[in-house]
Amino acid sequence: MAKTLPFTGSAVAIVTPFDGYKTDYDALGELIEWHIADGTDAIVICGTTGEASTMPDAEHLAAIKYTIEKAAGRIPVIAGTGSNETAHAIELSKKAEEYGADGLLQVTPYYNKTTQRGLVAHFTAIANAVKIPVILYNVPSRTGMAISIDALKELAKVENIVAIKEASGDISYTAKVAAQVPELYIYSGNDDMIVPVMSLGGKGVISVLANIMPRQTHDLCRAYLDGRCQEAAKMQLEYLDLINKLFIEVNPIPVKTALNLMGKKAGNLRLPLVDMAPDNLEALKAAMAKQNLI
After folding, report:
1. What angle do CA 263, 268, 269 make, to 5 degrees?
2. d(CA 225, CA 181)
3. Which residues are catalytic?
4. pLDDT tens per residue across span 81-128
5. Which of 61, 151, 230, 262 makes the best surface tag, with the fewest CB within 10 Å?
């Protein structure tokens, strides 16, 4: 039986606008309305780009609740509720489900990391605590560990573990997932690999780029899904320089900077993230200017 997919196309890994040391909900609301108007297919709130790791639980959950209420069923909302402690991830996940989230994004445990057997136990316990779809998040550059193919095969047996956000940057790994774990859907976790991942059967992207180019990122995914593969590839290459500049420093430093340059209220970063170095800022501005964003 096919698993239920929360979305296809472009999901924005949305920034969390801050005003000093509090969430700026008015600014978040404006961003959500912009994404809905410009065709973004889903919103991922409190992921890496949302600086969730800096947010106390009350703030983290309040941002999820606000986003679900603001979206009001017009667009799917995926809540980032991962943790390196299973009980904590379960607590956040059950709250997000209670609020009405359409799915959950679950990152691999970090720092204490665990083994592959531990990963299976961790993700299975979280998925069994809720009924909504769970998307696994493979991002070894952030967490220090990857999900093995054998672990994915075990996890795919869990009914509501439906997909993987693949952000290793290893297209060979993606191909192995597609070939050996066909029960799981795949989303690209890297904006520079949207078309390559979709060429292997991927259903879309959880995107940083979509924060500043929501319509274009949606259109790129739609083109591929509609069979206009050459058009999608052309767009992928056209946006490549800007995508690279969005990662010239640690995400979300450049994308928040870009939004502020565009007149969108992304607000400040939280330490240990700091403002961009001047030379990198100029490189980002030049790439944005080529896309007529500033």
Report:
1. 130
2. 21
3. 137, 165
4. 999 999 999 999 999 999 999 999 999 999 999 999 999 999 999 999
5. 230
pTM (2 decimals)?
A: 0.97
Provide the residue type at 225 as one letter. L
pLDDT at res. 3: 85
**Per-position DSSP letters for the chain, written without gaps between them:** -PPPPS--EEEEE----EETTEE-HHHHHHHHHHHHHTT--EEEESSTTTTGGGS-HHHHHHHHHHHHHHHTTSS-EEEE---SSHHHHHHHHHHHHHHT-SEEEEEPP-SS---HHHHHHHHHHHHHT-SS-EEEEE-HHHHS----HHHHHHHTTSTTEEEEEE-S--HHHHHHHHHH-TTSEEEES-GGGHHHHHHTT--EEEESGGGT-HHHHHHHHHHHHTT-HHHHHHHHHHTHHHHHHTTSSSTTHHHHHHHHHTT---B---TT--PPPHHHHHHHHHHHHHTT--
Half-sphere exposure of residue 4, counting CA atoms within 13 Å on the CB side? 11
pLDDT in tens, 276-286: 999 999 999 99
Residues in the chain: 294
